[in-house]
Amino acid sequence: MIYINVIAYDLRELGFDVKTQVPIPLVYKEVKLDAGFRLDLLVENKVIVEIKSIEALVPVHFAQTLTYLKLSNLKLALLINFK
């Protein structure tokens, strides 16, 4: 979580609009479900930034990021690992 706040702070200092922990609802048959999906960072309402601090990224991390892209109807995401 500290990485998220630091990156958000720096991006805001550069003049970017940054939202943190943005909830993404899952819509199923016109029913909005709170599935607990949250974007780490949303920059300028265009770019998803997912932050990890783990030994190695595994396929589930890429799948999570792709799921966020699909559910948000956005086209660009960054998956960053600080470990």
Let me know the average pLDDT. Answer: 93
Give the helices and strands as they follow along the chain. Answer: HEEEHE
Instruction: Determine the CATH topology.
Output: Trna Endonuclease, Chain: A, domain 1
- CATH architecture grouping: 3-Layer(aba) Sandwich
Structural class comes to: alpha+beta
Fraction in beta strands: 35-45%
Report on the structure:
This protein is an alpha+beta fold. The chain has one domain (2-81): Trna Endonuclease, Chain: A, domain 1, CATH 3.40.1350. It contains two helices and four strands. It has helices spanning 2-13, 59-72; strands at residues 18-28, 31-43, 47-52, 76-81. Strands 1-2-3-4 form a four-stranded mixed beta sheet. The longest helix is centred in the last third of the chain and has 14 residues, at 59-72. It starts with a helix and ends with a strand.
Describe the secondary-structure layout:
Layout: H1 2-13, E1 18-28, E2 31-43, E3 47-52, H2 59-72, E4 76-81
Parallel strand pairs: 3-4
Antiparallel strand pairs: 1-2, 2-3
